[in-house]
Amino acid sequence: MKIPFNKPYFTGKEPFYVAQCAFTGELSGNGTYTQKCHDFFESRYGFQKALLTSSCTDALEMAALLSEVGPGDQVIMPSFTFVSTANAFALRGADIVFADIGEDIPNIDPDKLEALITEKTKALVVVHYAGLAVDMDRIMDIAGRHNLFVVEDAAHAIDSYYKERPLGSIGHVGTFSFHETKNIIAGEGGLLTVNDESLIERAEILWEKGTNRAAFSRGEVNKYEWVDLGSSYLPSDMTAAFLYSQLQHLGEIQEKRLHIWQKYHEELAETKNQGLIYYPDTPSYATQNGSMFYFLANSDKQRKKILEYLKKNGILAVFHYLPLHESKYFEGKHDGRDLPNTREYSSRIVRLPFYVELADTEIEVIGDRVRSIV
Ligand SMILES: *Cc1c(COP(=O)(O)O)cnc(C)c1O
Q1: Is there an atom of ligand 1 within 6 Å of 245 CB?
Q2: pTM value?
Q3: Separation of 77 CA from ligand 1 center, angstroms?
Q4: What is residue 1's predicted lDDT score, i.e. its pLDDT?
Q5: Among 6, 89, 176, 179, residue to substitute to test ligand 1 (most atoms within 8 Å of Cβ)
Q6: How many whole angstroms from 190 Cα to the centroid of ligand 1?
Q7: Confidence of residue 90 (pLDDT cuts 50, 70, 90)
Q8: CATH topology of domain 250-373
């Protein structure tokens, strides 16, 4: 038996939609399928403005540009995240201040945030890890009192909610990923959500190479020209076509992924209650969205044993997020604070196989193997 870690899910309509772009000749960005995707996101989740990007990395770069941070400014974010979260702001010349995550939930810890804020702090980036919401009321309260720009890195968080509000709709901007490993895929792809009306016009300009071409294509101006900084953040309409077929099946993809999460939970809840492994309970303000299933082993040594044992049994489990504050690039840039929860999660996390076609019987086998090794 072989169980891979990930297996992209196809709805079946992707090649037809992509082929349609070839037949109609609508290949470049901001075409019919891009519009369909924007409309879908705006109507389903109430984002003020949705802009497809070529990746979540690109959406984060747009967020950094919109935040207007530069050299001398500080941006606070968790160390336990993907490198793109930090890179986007480091590219603007800002100083990254890494915060620890909570002990119970690997999201940035609001209790430890305020102590990190100085008058140089300009932005705050939160990551809804595994689609589980950060306590956004507390974040927005802190940000409001200190006049900070809030970015929600919602790469894992499609179709997940905070007190019934969609993630990605609460901060000034939000970013999503449609990378092949995420819930909804486009190969490479992403989304910027803009929730502050005053940022929308500039967001469209950054998106279209610093020009007002989006306004031009709506007939609002009679020529388009260079009006601001920008880059080519918009994806080709073929990427949007692929994504659109996934969006049409979002409901059933999510239903299946939530079922998988629930099934893992049934398999492992007792092992968790015995203290042999740990994973967070879902806070009352948050929802699961079936982005992944993970647990913490009791030590890094035990994690190694678990991963090896699973591999020997044909099950590919993985770990991730080497702490960014200890990374090679960041050497000499961190202020020396210990981030103990980041260290613990990074050295003990085990992520189990997670994809739509994963069968209940396979989850039962994985559950059995995990129980027997721990
Ligand atoms: C996947 C991921 C990204 C990057 O997404 P891409 O679409 O691959 O650029 C950024 N942040 C987090 C938290 C991620 O998991």
Answers
A1: no
A2: 0.97
A3: 14
A4: 80
A5: 179
A6: 9
A7: very high
A8: Aspartate Aminotransferase, domain 1 (3.90.1150)
